[in-house]
Amino acid sequence: MKVNIELDMTPEEARRLMGLPDLTGLQERMGAELERRMKAALEAADPAQMMKAWFGGEGLEQFQRFWAEAARPRPPKAKS
Questions:
Q1: pTM (predicted TM-score)
Q2: Nearest residue to 11 (alpha-carbon basis) of 30, 34, 27
């Protein structure tokens, strides 16, 4: 036997029905803190410093050499 029950209720009503705690305030505070931290990180973002952190002391130079080498024209391969 299969029984389906449909309940038409808001998320708030469902939360109360199941006895779950109201975390709205916590979520709002966490969201605001996350937004604050992300903005601070973006404001402090310096591409050269990020490259140094990611690739070590010579990271930026190595990255530039990589792209310069990749952009260099190559002679066509000989057909066999």
A1: 0.43
A2: 27
